[in-house]
Design brief:
GO cellular component, one term: nucleus
Strand order of the largest sheet: 9-4-6-5-10
Number of helices: 7
Shape: globular
Distance between the termini: 33 Å
Number of domains: 2
Strand content: 25-35%
Structural class: alpha+beta
CATH topology of the largest domain: Alpha-Beta Plaits
CATH architecture of the largest domain: 2-Layer Sandwich
InterPro entries: RWD_dom, RWDD3, UBQ-conjugating_enzyme/RWD
Largest sheet: 5 strands, mixed
Radius of gyration: 20 Å
Helix content: 40-55%
Main location: cytoplasm
Order of helices and strands: EEEHHHEHEEHEEEEHH
Protein name: RWD domain-containing protein 3
CATH class of the largest domain: Alpha Beta
Keywords: Cytoplasm, Nucleus
Number of strands: 10
């Protein structure tokens, strides 16, 4: 394997902030793990984005102490025991530096990602997987089919966009010509950029099929993405 392993762990930390906190942790272990640190993403509906970032930073600090030895189990035990302290520290930092905190939380803003897929052999399963990932990561946008063209257009927090890309590249989402589960190797990142004021924000994620190129173009124009369409679509039609 050239990409390593990605897996998601969900844990509940009880009696915190007068409620149970559900932590959704995504670990990407590179091929040379544990000699190399894992990539870690943290999400929780009960915590703010700043608090999730702080949890991630503290986990990476702990990971450095376990370099060259298996560490995921130790990291999970550690955060279960110390989550309350980590969140307290987040609150202290916010209170001491309100201006900096405000700037940091909106630093990345909303980002947009446009992907091109070469094909889908197991279409129904593939579509269901993409819908689940976008729901879990609170991403909006479109999965678009027009003839042989397959595009995925996503909007959301930059960290969630990057997490989606990891899942897309490392999970077995399709089947090969013999029907065996396989990873997506024929994917192109056409564009990854910050959403601008002229771009329309998608409110949901939808799967849509277009019978003509004009229909697909109209979707992009309605979203204020005419330039994106004219830049990236013509080469796909050749």
């Amino acid at each position: 394997e050239t990409h390593g392993i990605t897996f998601r762990i969900q844990i509940i930390v009880k009696e915190l902030l007068d409620t149970d906190v559900l932590l959704k942790l995504l670990f990407h272990l590179p091929v040379n793990y544990p000699s190399t640190l894992p990539d870690i993403s943290v999400n929780s509906d009960q915590l703010t984005r700043a608090q999730c970032t702080n949890v991630k930073d503290k986990l990476l600090e702990q990971a450095k102490k376990h370099l060259s030895e298996p560490m995921v189990h130790d990291l999970i035990l550690w955060i279960q025991q110390h989550l309350k302290d980590v969140i307290r520290q987040s609150a202290t930092v916010c209170n001491e530096k309100p201006t900096l905190s405000k700037g940091t939380s909106t630093e990345d803003g909303i980002w947009m990602l446009l992907l091109h897929l070469d094909h889908m052999r197991a279409k129904a399963k593939y579509v269901k997987t993409v819908e689940k990932w976008t729901s879990d990561l609170r991403l909006t946008g479109r999965l678009m089919f027009m003839g042989k063209i397959i595009l995925i257009l996503l909007q959301g927090d930059r960290s969630n966009i990057k997490e989606y890309l990891i899942l897309q590249k490392t999970s077995k989402v399709d089947v090969d010509s013999s029907g065996k589960k396989c990873k997506e190797k024929m994917i192109s990142v056409l564009c990854e950029t910050k959403v601008q004021s002229q771009h329309k924000r998608f409110q949901t994620f939808e799967v849509k099929e277009y019978s003509t190129l004009d229909e697909l173009q109209k979707e992009f124009e309605t979203a204020g993405l005419t330039t994106l369409f004219s830049e990236f679509l013509p080469p796909l039609l050749k």
